[in-house]
Amino acid sequence: MMFLAAAGMMSVAAESPYGAEVVDCVTGSRDMRFNNSNNVLGAPSRFVNIYSGSWGGVGYSDTYGGVVHPAVPAFSGGLHLSLISPDDEEPGYVTIAFDHDVVDDPDNPFGVDFIVFGNSGCTKKSTTGMTALDDPATCRLTAEGFPEESVVEVAQNPNGPWYGSEKWRTSDGFAPTLGHMYDPDNADTRLYSGNRWWGAPTDPTYPVDPRIGFSDCAGLTLAELCQRYNGSAGGAGYDLADTGLPADAAHGGRKWFRYVRISCAYSEEPNEDGDYGFTEPEVDAVADVAPVSGYRQWVLANFTWDKAWQTNLTAATVIAPNGLPNGLNCLYGLKPTDAAAYVPFEVTAFEQGETAHVIRMRSPTRLTETPKGLVVRKAAALDGGWTAVVPTFLSAQQEGGVWLNTFTVPNDAASRFFRLALDED
User: Fold this and answer.
1) Is-contact 198 142, C-beta < 8 A?
2) DSSP notation for 336-404
3) What is the pLDDT of residues 122-180, one digit of tens each?
4) Which residues are bridge partners to 259 per DSSP?
5) CA–CA distances in Å: residue 352 to residues 63, 349, 408, 410
6) Cα–Cα distance between 337 and 25 in angstroms, integer?
7) Exposed e or buried b for every residue in 23-42, given b needs 16+ CB within 10 A?
């Protein structure tokens, strides 16, 4: 049934998931196309203007540009902010504020809480430029990329204190931005004349698996890499659990921040010119990650990054190796290869109330604010008129390998009878 797919959809994170204001910025860039700090606000770049000429030491005689993807990063003017240190003493940096507090959410995919977008890219095996008309399935990638080191820190107040982590990677590295999904069957011809490869926009609030890096791209085609993004726009993901940020009761006992600062890093190794000093990363955007739940969270936990994109929300009814539909494996808390044993949800108590009834239930997985897979319907009579009820979650605690869940359903004139079921149509 479609309930499983609906439970796995991503929810809206907040007022705006992207950076809303530049609080402070220092850069030594003198190019007006790249020193506008407002370039970091809003969503990451999706499109590069069609271009001909020389870029990165490589000459392009054909049309170049189009959709932003790992082989064509957001390189042109007006798409990003270039951070260049104004002197040898202090790094260049930009401080960006969200219009809401970004919270360490356990339902965020891969544990990633926010994403920073730069303009890094993957290295192709071919040294020729890739045009907007070239087939991504013919572009083969290497194990290398062209990242630029940066320092990422967060704070709850604009003046700090600032928190980062040694576990955090550079913001201008993997995963390179992907503006639109590789979908040749549904190519959007409105993007540009001759587009045969790129379809719907990707989601900047959904991260790529942070355990993946440039080395995992070796031998892949650009098309294969874009498919493995699984709908994500890419970017470098960060987990607040890695920091010393304080938590408080106002945020449910979770860590949180509102301000993010991206700075040039000091290089301990000489660059290609033999010089030491600060790096020069680019910043395109920042985004608050939207939580996912239900079937999609289960897919991320049970399928590797090269398989998860093939096991999307529409595949909830596909039979797994253990003989059960993937959707039921998700509800029962089973892996696709676990022994197929029926694990029922059991109602242990139904306590009547004047305005709401309390239901207590055992289940193999923890129910949340919108109980996953549990369908509740009410009726005034047994012989008809059943309508859906959205239960209200109260609590859940683990006991003896199962979860004891407590939630309520409303008591009104149409609620004389209740029907509780698992995965019911």
Assistant:
1) no
2) TTS-------EEEEEE--SSEEEEEEEESS---SS-SSEEEEEESBTTB--EEE--EEEEEEEETTEEE
3) 999 987 778 888 999 999 999 999 999 999 999 999 999 999 999 999 999 999 999 99
4) 97, 155
5) 70, 10, 10, 10
6) 51
7) bebbbebeeeebbbbebbbb
Task: Report which DSSP code applies to 123.
Answer: E
Phi-psi group of 294: left, alpha or beta (phi > 0 → left; psi -120 to 50 → alpha; rest → beta)? left
Tokens of 269: 């190794």
Write the CATH number of the domain with boundaries 346-422.
2.60.40
Joined together, the tokens standing for residue 228 give 């493995």
Tokens of 391: 């239960």
Residues sharing a CB contact under 8 Å with residue 56, sequence separation 6 or more, in sequence order? none
Any idea where the domains of the chain sit in the sequence?
1-11+293-338, 18-289, 346-422
Round to whole Å and give the CA distance between 308 and 142. Answer: 22
What is the total residue count of the chain? 425
